[in-house]
Automatic annotation (TrEMBL):
One of its GO terms (molecular function) is DNA-binding transcription factor activity. The keyword Transcription applies. One of its GO terms (cellular component) is protein-DNA complex. Residues 1-58 form the HTH lysR-type domain. This is LysR family transcriptional regulator. Transmembrane segments: none annotated.
Length: 304
Protein backbone atom coordinates (compact mmCIF):
# COMPACT_ATOMS: atom_id res chain seq x y z
CA UNK A 1 0.00 0.00 0.00
CA UNK A 2 1.37 3.42 -0.91
CA UNK A 3 0.30 7.04 -0.48
CA UNK A 4 -0.75 7.45 -4.11
CA UNK A 5 -3.31 4.68 -3.62
CA UNK A 6 -4.70 6.37 -0.49
CA UNK A 7 -4.94 9.79 -2.14
CA UNK A 8 -6.59 8.23 -5.19
CA UNK A 9 -9.09 6.32 -3.04
CA UNK A 10 -10.06 9.46 -1.10
CA UNK A 11 -10.42 11.50 -4.30
CA UNK A 12 -12.70 8.91 -5.93
CA UNK A 13 -14.88 9.01 -2.79
CA UNK A 14 -15.03 12.79 -2.90
CA UNK A 15 -15.68 13.09 -6.65
CA UNK A 16 -18.06 10.12 -6.87
CA UNK A 17 -16.53 8.70 -10.05
CA UNK A 18 -13.25 7.43 -11.46
CA UNK A 19 -13.34 9.82 -14.41
CA UNK A 20 -13.86 12.93 -12.26
CA UNK A 21 -11.10 11.81 -9.90
CA UNK A 22 -8.79 11.36 -12.89
CA UNK A 23 -9.51 14.88 -14.13
CA UNK A 24 -9.08 16.30 -10.63
CA UNK A 25 -5.70 14.60 -10.16
CA UNK A 26 -4.68 15.24 -13.79
CA UNK A 27 -3.92 11.59 -14.47
CA UNK A 28 -5.49 8.99 -16.76
CA UNK A 29 -8.52 6.96 -15.76
CA UNK A 30 -6.65 3.63 -16.29
CA UNK A 31 -4.10 4.85 -13.71
CA UNK A 32 -6.93 5.54 -11.27
CA UNK A 33 -8.39 2.08 -11.87
CA UNK A 34 -4.98 0.41 -11.46
CA UNK A 35 -4.34 2.13 -8.13
CA UNK A 36 -7.76 1.21 -6.76
CA UNK A 37 -7.37 -2.38 -7.99
CA UNK A 38 -3.99 -2.67 -6.24
CA UNK A 39 -5.47 -1.28 -3.03
CA UNK A 40 -8.42 -3.68 -3.21
CA UNK A 41 -6.06 -6.61 -3.74
CA UNK A 42 -4.13 -5.64 -0.62
CA UNK A 43 -7.29 -5.17 1.47
CA UNK A 44 -8.83 -8.40 0.27
CA UNK A 45 -12.00 -7.17 -1.40
CA UNK A 46 -13.76 -4.45 -3.38
CA UNK A 47 -13.97 -0.90 -2.06
CA UNK A 48 -16.46 0.51 -4.58
CA UNK A 49 -19.68 -0.68 -6.14
CA UNK A 50 -19.24 0.09 -9.81
CA UNK A 51 -22.28 0.75 -11.94
CA UNK A 52 -23.31 3.67 -14.10
CA UNK A 53 -21.55 7.02 -13.86
CA UNK A 54 -21.42 7.14 -10.06
CA UNK A 55 -19.51 4.78 -7.79
CA UNK A 56 -20.45 4.15 -4.15
CA UNK A 57 -18.52 2.65 -1.27
CA UNK A 58 -18.99 -0.95 -0.29
CA UNK A 59 -19.18 -1.89 3.37
CA UNK A 60 -15.44 -2.60 3.23
CA UNK A 61 -14.83 0.81 1.67
CA UNK A 62 -16.94 2.56 4.32
CA UNK A 63 -14.94 0.93 7.11
CA UNK A 64 -11.59 1.77 5.48
CA UNK A 65 -12.33 5.43 4.62
CA UNK A 66 -11.82 7.02 8.09
CA UNK A 67 -8.49 5.21 8.50
CA UNK A 68 -7.30 6.34 5.08
CA UNK A 69 -8.21 9.95 5.86
CA UNK A 70 -6.55 9.72 9.27
CA UNK A 71 -3.34 8.39 7.65
CA UNK A 72 -3.37 11.25 5.12
CA UNK A 73 -3.95 13.79 7.88
CA UNK A 74 -1.08 12.41 9.99
CA UNK A 75 1.20 12.56 6.96
CA UNK A 76 0.30 16.21 6.31
CA UNK A 77 0.92 17.04 9.97
CA UNK A 78 4.31 15.34 9.80
CA UNK A 79 5.27 17.26 6.67
CA UNK A 80 4.20 20.54 8.25
CA UNK A 81 6.11 19.82 11.46
CA UNK A 82 9.25 18.99 9.47
CA UNK A 83 8.87 22.03 7.23
CA UNK A 84 8.28 24.42 10.10
CA UNK A 85 11.98 24.47 10.99
CA UNK A 86 12.95 28.01 10.05
CA UNK A 87 9.37 29.33 10.14
CA UNK A 88 8.00 27.37 7.16
CA UNK A 89 4.94 25.16 6.80
CA UNK A 90 1.36 25.81 5.74
CA UNK A 91 -1.96 27.08 7.10
CA UNK A 92 -5.03 25.53 5.46
CA UNK A 93 -8.11 27.62 6.31
CA UNK A 94 -11.73 27.80 5.18
CA UNK A 95 -13.90 30.81 6.03
CA UNK A 96 -17.38 32.16 5.44
CA UNK A 97 -17.37 34.88 2.81
CA UNK A 98 -18.53 37.48 5.34
CA UNK A 99 -15.38 36.82 7.41
CA UNK A 100 -12.94 36.62 4.51
CA UNK A 101 -12.60 40.40 4.21
CA UNK A 102 -11.02 42.96 6.51
CA UNK A 103 -10.82 40.78 9.64
CA UNK A 104 -9.08 37.88 7.91
CA UNK A 105 -6.97 40.23 5.78
CA UNK A 106 -5.70 41.93 8.96
CA UNK A 107 -4.87 38.54 10.46
CA UNK A 108 -2.97 37.36 7.37
CA UNK A 109 -1.12 40.67 7.08
CA UNK A 110 0.12 40.47 10.68
CA UNK A 111 0.92 36.76 10.42
CA UNK A 112 2.87 37.20 7.17
CA UNK A 113 5.07 39.87 8.74
CA UNK A 114 6.76 37.18 10.87
CA UNK A 115 6.00 34.00 8.87
CA UNK A 116 6.90 34.82 5.28
CA UNK A 117 7.89 31.22 4.49
CA UNK A 118 4.54 29.79 5.57
CA UNK A 119 2.06 29.05 2.78
CA UNK A 120 -1.50 30.23 3.51
CA UNK A 121 -4.40 28.62 1.63
CA UNK A 122 -7.93 30.03 1.96
CA UNK A 123 -11.18 28.40 0.85
CA UNK A 124 -14.45 30.40 0.98
CA UNK A 125 -17.57 28.35 1.74
CA UNK A 126 -20.69 28.08 3.90
CA UNK A 127 -20.42 26.76 7.46
CA UNK A 128 -21.72 23.27 6.62
CA UNK A 129 -19.23 22.95 3.78
CA UNK A 130 -16.39 24.09 6.05
CA UNK A 131 -17.29 21.45 8.64
CA UNK A 132 -17.16 18.84 5.87
CA UNK A 133 -13.72 20.12 4.79
CA UNK A 134 -12.46 19.84 8.38
CA UNK A 135 -13.89 16.34 8.68
CA UNK A 136 -12.23 15.26 5.43
CA UNK A 137 -8.89 16.76 6.45
CA UNK A 138 -8.88 19.25 3.57
CA UNK A 139 -8.34 22.22 5.93
CA UNK A 140 -7.04 22.57 9.48
CA UNK A 141 -9.00 25.65 10.59
CA UNK A 142 -12.48 26.94 9.87
CA UNK A 143 -14.29 30.24 10.48
CA UNK A 144 -17.97 29.30 10.81
CA UNK A 145 -21.26 30.46 12.29
CA UNK A 146 -21.85 29.84 16.00
CA UNK A 147 -23.52 27.82 17.44
CA UNK A 148 -22.77 24.72 15.40
CA UNK A 149 -24.07 21.17 15.84
CA UNK A 150 -20.97 19.06 15.28
CA UNK A 151 -19.52 17.33 18.36
CA UNK A 152 -16.38 16.31 16.45
CA UNK A 153 -15.54 20.00 15.86
CA UNK A 154 -13.70 21.97 18.56
CA UNK A 155 -14.05 25.69 19.20
CA UNK A 156 -10.76 27.62 19.49
CA UNK A 157 -12.06 31.21 19.49
CA UNK A 158 -15.52 32.74 19.44
CA UNK A 159 -16.39 36.25 18.27
CA UNK A 160 -19.49 38.37 18.78
CA UNK A 161 -20.26 41.34 16.52
CA UNK A 162 -23.31 43.65 16.52
CA UNK A 163 -25.47 43.68 13.41
CA UNK A 164 -26.64 47.02 12.02
CA UNK A 165 -29.15 47.87 9.32
CA UNK A 166 -27.23 48.96 6.21
CA UNK A 167 -28.59 50.68 3.10
CA UNK A 168 -27.19 52.51 0.09
CA UNK A 169 -26.67 56.26 0.44
CA UNK A 170 -29.71 57.01 -1.80
CA UNK A 171 -32.11 54.54 -0.13
CA UNK A 172 -35.33 56.05 1.34
CA UNK A 173 -34.44 54.75 4.84
CA UNK A 174 -31.20 56.75 4.73
CA UNK A 175 -33.19 59.99 4.40
CA UNK A 176 -35.59 59.52 7.31
CA UNK A 177 -34.78 61.50 10.48
CA UNK A 178 -35.95 58.55 12.58
CA UNK A 179 -36.41 54.89 11.57
CA UNK A 180 -38.65 52.38 13.37
CA UNK A 181 -39.08 48.63 13.02
CA UNK A 182 -42.27 49.30 11.11
CA UNK A 183 -40.30 51.43 8.64
CA UNK A 184 -37.81 48.58 8.16
CA UNK A 185 -40.62 46.11 7.47
CA UNK A 186 -42.31 48.31 4.86
CA UNK A 187 -39.59 50.49 3.29
CA UNK A 188 -36.59 48.15 2.91
CA UNK A 189 -37.75 47.20 -0.60
CA UNK A 190 -36.68 44.44 -0.05
CA UNK A 191 -35.06 43.26 3.18
CA UNK A 192 -32.18 41.08 1.94
CA UNK A 193 -31.30 37.83 3.66
CA UNK A 194 -27.78 37.27 4.97
CA UNK A 195 -26.94 33.84 6.41
CA UNK A 196 -25.82 34.79 9.90
CA UNK A 197 -26.95 31.53 11.47
CA UNK A 198 -30.12 29.99 12.94
CA UNK A 199 -30.08 31.99 16.18
CA UNK A 200 -30.02 35.34 14.34
CA UNK A 201 -32.61 34.14 11.81
CA UNK A 202 -34.96 33.00 14.59
CA UNK A 203 -34.59 36.29 16.48
CA UNK A 204 -35.20 38.36 13.35
CA UNK A 205 -38.31 36.30 12.60
CA UNK A 206 -39.65 37.01 16.09
CA UNK A 207 -39.25 40.73 15.35
CA UNK A 208 -41.17 40.35 12.09
CA UNK A 209 -38.06 41.09 10.02
CA UNK A 210 -38.70 38.58 7.28
CA UNK A 211 -36.38 38.79 4.26
CA UNK A 212 -37.74 38.74 0.74
CA UNK A 213 -38.46 35.13 -0.29
CA UNK A 214 -36.70 33.95 -3.43
CA UNK A 215 -33.65 36.16 -2.90
CA UNK A 216 -31.07 33.81 -1.36
CA UNK A 217 -27.91 35.68 -2.37
CA UNK A 218 -24.22 35.58 -1.44
CA UNK A 219 -22.81 38.43 0.60
CA UNK A 220 -20.91 40.12 -2.26
CA UNK A 221 -24.09 40.28 -4.35
CA UNK A 222 -26.00 41.81 -1.43
CA UNK A 223 -23.27 44.43 -1.00
CA UNK A 224 -23.49 45.41 -4.68
CA UNK A 225 -27.28 45.62 -4.50
CA UNK A 226 -26.99 48.00 -1.54
CA UNK A 227 -24.50 50.11 -3.50
CA UNK A 228 -27.04 50.28 -6.34
CA UNK A 229 -29.69 51.53 -3.90
CA UNK A 230 -31.69 48.30 -3.79
CA UNK A 231 -32.79 46.83 -0.48
CA UNK A 232 -31.55 46.82 3.10
CA UNK A 233 -29.60 44.21 5.06
CA UNK A 234 -28.37 43.56 8.57
CA UNK A 235 -24.57 43.49 8.38
CA UNK A 236 -21.59 43.90 10.66
CA UNK A 237 -19.57 47.09 10.30
CA UNK A 238 -16.44 45.12 9.41
CA UNK A 239 -18.04 43.59 6.32
CA UNK A 240 -18.67 47.00 4.71
CA UNK A 241 -16.08 49.16 6.51
CA UNK A 242 -14.67 50.76 3.36
CA UNK A 243 -18.13 51.55 1.99
CA UNK A 244 -19.14 53.12 5.31
CA UNK A 245 -15.99 55.26 5.30
CA UNK A 246 -16.70 56.44 1.75
CA UNK A 247 -20.38 57.10 2.51
CA UNK A 248 -21.64 54.80 -0.25
CA UNK A 249 -23.32 52.61 2.36
CA UNK A 250 -25.06 54.12 5.39
CA UNK A 251 -25.72 52.61 8.82
CA UNK A 252 -29.32 53.24 9.88
CA UNK A 253 -30.17 53.39 13.57
CA UNK A 254 -33.52 51.70 14.23
CA UNK A 255 -35.31 53.28 17.18
CA UNK A 256 -37.08 50.28 18.72
CA UNK A 257 -34.77 47.48 17.56
CA UNK A 258 -33.33 45.22 20.30
CA UNK A 259 -29.61 44.42 19.86
CA UNK A 260 -28.80 41.85 17.18
CA UNK A 261 -25.48 40.00 17.19
CA UNK A 262 -23.70 37.71 14.78
CA UNK A 263 -21.55 35.06 16.46
CA UNK A 264 -18.85 33.11 14.71
CA UNK A 265 -16.09 30.75 15.76
CA UNK A 266 -12.63 29.64 14.75
CA UNK A 267 -12.70 25.84 14.92
CA UNK A 268 -10.65 22.73 14.20
CA UNK A 269 -11.26 19.00 14.13
CA UNK A 270 -11.47 17.66 17.69
CA UNK A 271 -8.44 15.53 18.50
CA UNK A 272 -6.34 16.86 15.63
CA UNK A 273 -2.76 18.04 16.17
CA UNK A 274 -2.13 21.63 15.08
CA UNK A 275 1.29 22.36 13.61
CA UNK A 276 3.42 25.20 15.04
CA UNK A 277 2.50 27.37 12.05
CA UNK A 278 -1.23 26.83 12.60
CA UNK A 279 -0.93 27.49 16.35
CA UNK A 280 0.88 30.75 15.62
CA UNK A 281 -1.88 31.72 13.16
CA UNK A 282 -4.53 31.10 15.83
CA UNK A 283 -2.63 33.32 18.28
CA UNK A 284 -2.35 36.12 15.71
CA UNK A 285 -6.07 35.90 14.97
CA UNK A 286 -6.82 36.11 18.70
CA UNK A 287 -4.64 39.24 18.98
CA UNK A 288 -6.26 40.86 15.94
CA UNK A 289 -9.78 40.10 17.20
CA UNK A 290 -8.97 41.56 20.62
CA UNK A 291 -7.84 44.82 18.97
CA UNK A 292 -10.76 45.29 16.55
CA UNK A 293 -13.48 47.68 17.76
CA UNK A 294 -16.19 45.86 15.80
CA UNK A 295 -15.80 42.70 17.90
CA UNK A 296 -17.62 43.21 21.19
CA UNK A 297 -16.81 39.83 22.77
CA UNK A 298 -13.98 37.33 22.37
CA UNK A 299 -14.13 33.88 23.99
CA UNK A 300 -10.88 31.94 24.12
CA UNK A 301 -10.41 28.20 23.53
CA UNK A 302 -12.79 25.89 25.35
CA UNK A 303 -11.23 23.96 28.23
CA UNK A 304 -13.01 20.64 28.01
Amino acid sequence: MDLEQLFTFERVVREGSFSKAARSLNISQPTISARIQALENELGGTLFTRGGRVVTLTERGESFLPYARRAMSVLREGIEAAQFTGQSGSVMLAAMQSLSGSFLASTIERFYATHQRVHCFLHVAHSAEIIAMLTDGLVKLGLISYPFLAPHIKQLLRFSEPLHLMVGEAHPLARLPEVTLEDVRHLSNPLLSVRWGPSVDSYAEQLGLLPQPGLDLPFNTIRHLLLRGMGAAFLTRMTVAEDLDSGRIVQVEVKDLPPLYRESALVCLRGSTLSPAVRDFVQVMKDVAASMPGITRLVIEEKR
